[in-house]
Amino acid sequence: MTTNPEAxxxxxxxxxxxxxxxxxxxRDTLKLIASENYVSAAVLEASGTVLTNKYSExxxxxxxxxxxxxxxxIETVAIDxxxxxxxTDHANVQPYSGSPAxxxxxxxTAKPGDTVMGMALPMGGHLTHGWSVSATxxxxxxxxxxxxxxxxxxxMDEVRELALRERPTLIFCGGTxxxxxxxxxxxxxxxxxxxxxxxxDIAHIAxxxxxxxxxxxxxxxxxxxxxxxxxxxxxxxxxxLASEQYAKAIDKAVFPGLQGGPHNHTxxxxxxxxxxxxxxxxxxxAHQIVRNAQALADELQARGFELSSGGxxxxxxxxxxxxxxxxxxxxxxxxxxxxxxxxxxxxxxxxRKPFDPSGMxxxxxxxxxxxxxxxxxxxxxxxxxxxxxxxxxxESDTLDKAIDQVRGEVNELTGRFPxxxxxx
Length: 424
Ligand SMILES: *Cc1c(COP(=O)(O)O)cnc(C)c1O
Hints:
424 residues; alpha/beta; Aspartate Aminotransferase, domain 2; Aspartate Aminotransferase, domain 1; 7-stranded mixed beta sheet; 16 helices; 13% strand; globular; binds pyridoxal-5'-phosphate
């Protein structure tokens, strides 16, 4: 390792202390947030290197600063690995994160005022798919599709009707709280019928796609965007993958359209994560994530929890907790005290407000990175049930006692499953 933990401690003990505290928190809690993960020690190391010292606006061989002998190679390796892993003609690994990556797609393919289409945020879509509070909803005429009330799945009839009526320039598929397989061929057919560019935003499921645990959008979507830090298990960053046809426009949109210099230390971390994701072990990991989510879903359902769409095909599940006499936010806070880190979330057609919605989102990618399997998922479901039961009594003593007990059991479990990148 080139970094020296002593340096931080002696230069800035305050921040060193806080980093240590966060390390301990990550080690001692169960990370059930569907968008988070633990990177490997190798990714962590690559991300914290002197590459952060270098400016490299432009692309390999066409930079605006000298001294790119090494950076050009690193970015080229990352691009080649991305193209090989996902099987696309083109990859841009410079977007700072998922939101700017999506913005680059708009810049590359649409004009302000154009009609764009995406899944509604409260149905599981993402802000950057044209939701009103996002720049994308301000600068474009955004229209949204929903999930069906009866089965919680994307209503492809509605998608087609809306697309035929509104003739969008862009159609986004993918989202942040979709527990089911995304039907890329069906979206592609609709996009083709109306002459729209289809964008598959696979931020959440990129690792599953890479590992063969979710169908790939390649060959169906014109452009694919993804974060690198969710199921893909890389550093915080993003990529845009596309066929040759969109390559130039995408690159121009990222730089100079939206960004300045790429974060080269992140690019190195992405390259390492992509190499890891190309291994048979990662494919096994991706499949285990899904098996774990299904085990968690089964046990929660057996305990009477109501799951949006009735289950999961991927790494996440969405549950409506109101039938248990509790709501999302106080439950998420109680679980956090018990060592289970989750997020409160709206469920489709939620009658409650986003600030204290009916639901909660759970994901299994991070726990699977710690080597946990179905048996641990059943324990997690039991602990959630226990905290929910105590919370529903509205007696603070009962809740405190349940939280203490669960916290103790969680500590015992986390002690047995080291965190990649932490417990060396
Ligand atoms: C997480 C996510 C993003 C945004 O990523 P950030 O890195 O948080 O900007 C975009 N789209 C989808 C579907 C996501 O889940």
